[in-house]
Amino acid sequence: MSIVSQDYEEYQSAGRIWGLVPQERIRKIKFDRPSRAIIDRYLAIEDLTTTVSDVLDSLGIIGTVPASYLKPLSTGHRVVGPAVTIRNLVERKTPTQGYVDKDFIRMSTRDIYYLAEPGDVLVTDTGGNLDVSNMGGQSCTVAQTRGLAGSIVNGAVRDANTIRKLDYPVWSAGITPLTGKFRIEAIEMNAPVQVWNIRVEPGDLIVADDSGICCVPFEHIEYVIDQVEEITANEAHMAELIVKDVPLDELRPLFRKRYDG
Question: Domain 3-218: what homologous superfamily?
Answer without folding.
Answer: Ribonuclease E inhibitor RraA/RraA-like (3.50.30.40)
